[in-house]
Amino acid sequence: MHGTSLDRVATEADVSKTNLLYYFGSKDELYVSVLRELLDVWLTPLKTFSVEQDPLVAIGDYIRVKLELSRDHPEESRLFCMEVMQGAPLLLAELEQPLRELVEAKVKVIKAWIDSGKIAPVDPHHLIFSIWATTQHYADFQTQVKAVTGRTLEDPAFFEEVLQNLQALILNGLRPR
Amino acid sequence: MHGTSLDRVATEADVSKTNLLYYFGSKDELYVSVLRELLDVWLTPLKTFSVEQDPLVAIGDYIRVKLELSRDHPEESRLFCMEVMQGAPLLLAELEQPLRELVEAKVKVIKAWIDSGKIAPVDPHHLIFSIWATTQHYADFQTQVKAVTGRTLEDPAFFEEVLQNLQALILNGLRPR
DNA sequence: GTCTATATGCCGATAGAC
DNA sequence: GTCTATCGGCATATAGAC
Questions:
Q1: Any atom of strand C under 7 A from CB of B172?
Q2: pLDDT range class, residue A176, cuts 50, 70, 90
Q3: Most buried one in A100, A110, A146, B132, CB count within 10 A?
């Protein structure tokens, strides 16, 4: 059970089901390679955080890039969400090692920003989680957002509206006081 | 494909699989009734929003209650998330009618708060989505949160920490300026 | 109403021809 | 390497005895 079948993947990718298994060995191995690459792409923008940046600019940019990912690759976001929700049977090691270390490194950067008084003292972990949660929400819960508002991120005006609101919410919450 | 099997449900509920089908007719009908009840419970706290409340108290309380739901019923949160991520095949009508209407009603309340200058002018839709996204994140992405921080909402100290941070982030973003 | 047995269908994986 | 055919497992659903 992984949200899709080899048959669907094979049809979509225009190869035979047997060839998929020939190349990847098993469905799980296919999933692992897809998810690993996916995790890498989605984490890249976080890697650019560094102490010398202006935190409000860096975080504002990060929110924009993450929201663009939600707009351009919603199925990938949902695939990853599916995996994590099931307890990350295939990806737990990736989450516990590389992801954890990346987050810890960036937590230190955010702490430095706080210590120098550039942003308000929030727990960096929860700041990062909040950015992930709010931006990915528009991909993972696209159906619900559309049912309630009638719109999706593919509508450029709606994208801008979401971006402005998330940036305002999070950056205002961070303004030093 | 719905995250669990009738066999599991039957075992867990200590009834036979055939009896489940006897009572509910089909797996889909069982799901619909479970999801409907679930949606109702999860939306109840939003229903209490009213113009005469102090918005910062009302929203702060809402964040707490939603986070308690994420702590006490994470599997239900994930079940609902699963359904929506698949395009809400069983629940779309519920999202487009009762949910939409409830949200629109509460959007009006939040707009009244904004118009009277009690909170900053944010789009109420995105405020509501942000609260849903951030609070449910700790249930739906429990595995990832635990992999990164080593902790879950079941740890009372961690629960308090998350609550303080989410309230600070969102309420500070709303403080009139 | 509740059980056992079984029909039916889908999916992952393998065998074997070419 | 790529195809067709098929096995074996699991899950929903139904038939029929009690």
A1: no
A2: confident
A3: A110
